[in-house]
């Protein structure tokens, strides 16, 4: 979501902004096939606004108009699927012919049960699945069935409402090292008891 967009544009006033359906008139629509390189990091848009009919403007169609971004550095990669549904996930898995890999997968739609289906999870085969969701959010994200799907495939998971900011260091080769969780590296006595179990494995 774009809650911090104003601060970013203040710091980088000449930045070009690309987004999905419903992003606003000042935001360029992301389109599948867009690709750019920054130093040794490659960025590829796998899905964007152009795939969805213009007549669809509400509900699930807004989510399915999300930008899906694959970030590659060497043999390591991170997939950011936005809020796409399992239908679009299945489409991406099929188009890739089973070759869409990601060491780190940001769970689509905050871990909603309408996303993170088996086709994408099995195709990407990530080491880590990350849920960006608010503490005690009213939607129940991440859904227990989604957590079970990740667990059944032995994918390690972390949630932002438990770990705080989650950081990965990608070197471009080999497996991804364990992430750093802000609440483990910046411990406070008033919250440490609740995070002790989480931090044992990081």
Structural description of this entry:
The protein is an alpha/beta fold. It has a single domain (5-199), classed as 4-Layer Sandwich (Metallo-beta-lactamase, Chain A), CATH 3.60.15. The protein is built from 8 helices and 11 strands. It has a 7-stranded mixed sheet. The longest helix has 10 residues, at 86-95.
Task: Summarize the helices and strands and which ones pair or pack.
Blueprint: H1 5-11, E1 18-19, E2 28-29, E3 35-38, E4 41-47, H2 60-64, E5 68-73, E6 76-80, H3 86-95, E7 104-106, H4 118-124, E8 128-131, H5 144-152, E9 156-159, H6 160-163, E10 166-167, E11 180-181, H7 182-185, H8 192-199
Parallel strand pairs: 1-2, 6-7, 7-8, 8-9
Antiparallel strand pairs: 3-4, 4-5, 5-6, 10-11
Which structural traits does this protein have?
202 residues; alpha/beta; Metallo-beta-lactamase, Chain A; 7-stranded mixed beta sheet; two-stranded parallel sheet; 8 helices; globular
Largest sheet: 7 strands, mixed
DSSP summary: helix tally? 8
The top-level CATH class is Alpha Beta
Low-confidence stretches: none
Within the largest sheet, what's the order of strands?
A: 3-4-5-6-7-8-9
Domains (count): 1
Tell me, briefly, the overall form. Answer: globular
> In percent, how helical is the residue content?
25-40%
Mean pLDDT: 86
Q: Which class best fits the helix and strand makeup? A: alpha/beta
What is the terminal separation in angstroms? 27 Å
Instruction: Give the radius of gyration.
Output: 17 Å
The CATH topology name reads Metallo-beta-lactamase, Chain A
**CATH architecture assignment:** 4-Layer Sandwich
Strand content: 15-25%
Mind telling me the CATH superfamily name? Ribonuclease Z/Hydroxyacylglutathione hydrolase-like
Number of strands: 11
Order of helices and strands: HEEEEHEEHEHEHEHEEHH
């Amino acid at each position: 979501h774009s809650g911090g967009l104003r601060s970013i544009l203040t710091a980088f006033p000449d930045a070009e902004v690309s987004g999905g359906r419903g992003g606003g008139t000042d935001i360029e629509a992301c389109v599948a096939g867009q690709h750019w390189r920054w130093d040794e990091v490659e960025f590829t848009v796998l899905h964007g606004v152009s795939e969805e009919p213009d007549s669809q403007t509400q509900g699930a169609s807004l989510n399915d108009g999300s930008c899906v971004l694959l970030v590659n550095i060497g043999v390591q990669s991170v997939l950011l699927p936005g809020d796409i549904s399992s239908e679009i996930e299945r489409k991406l898995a099929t188009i890739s012919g089973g070759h869409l890999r990601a060491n780190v997968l940001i769970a689509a739609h905050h871990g909603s049960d309408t996303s993170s289906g088996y086709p994408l999870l099995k195709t990407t085969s990530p080491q880590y699945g990350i849920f960006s969701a608010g503490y005690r959010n009213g939607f129940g994200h991440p859904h227990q069935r989604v957590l079970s799907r990740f667990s059944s495939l032995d994918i390690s998971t972390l949630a932002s409402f438990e770990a705080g900011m989650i950081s990965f260091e990608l070197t471009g080769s080999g497996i991804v090292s364990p992430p750093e969780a802000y609440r483990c590296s910046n411990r406070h006595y008033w919250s440490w008891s609740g995070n002790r179990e989480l931090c044992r494995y990081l």
